[in-house]
Fold this protein.
Amino acid sequence: MKFFIDSANLEQIRSIQELGLLDGVTTNPSLMAKEGINNVDEHYQAICKITEGDVSAEVLSTSYEEMVQEGRHLAKLATNIVVKVPMTFDGLKAIRTLKQEGIRTNCTLVFTPIQALLAAKAGATYVSPFIGRLDDISSEGIKLIRQIKKIFRNYQLPTYILAASIRHTLHVVQVALAGADYVTIPYPTFISLVKHPLTDIGLEKFLKDANKI
Ligand code: E4P
């Protein structure tokens, strides 16, 4: 399973890149707004300089024509930009057109297996099922990943499953077991993947005992 960071914060992205575990980045308008960015294009280019992996840049328009135009513009910013398009009627049309032009897409805001199948049939490179937001409303988000995996396997669809809206370390374990191709992880969750209290206690004891040698 490949690891993306779900962040628009350059320091966080750099930190995971330096760890050697970064396969790419996903952003969304909320994450961009959180960083107080003035020049969005320059910010995407700065992210693309940190990683050679794919960087999802989301369109802000909602009509087919505008999404395609915006997608073309975003794709020109760097070779590793993937255009993030929402799961709507116009979004599906835009994904198809961008695919025909050789522009890669990430279909976002996917909440049902059928939405994922539609995105794959439209030619999306990635599909992003949001599992945390389903858990938030008392649905079992992980079931969605399992269902999409089965459907994509049944029809040998080449679209990657990018598990998104990750809230905690258990989600990362669950999506790995379910066979997600990618997971996009917020920085704090990335950090907590490394940690375990027994590791800390064990290390402390080993170091203490090492003094007795
Ligand atoms: C995915 O690409 C999205 O940016 C993200 O995972 C959304 O997560 P949230 O539900 O925590 O906002």
In short: Residues 64-77 form the longest helix (14 residues). The mean pLDDT is 97.
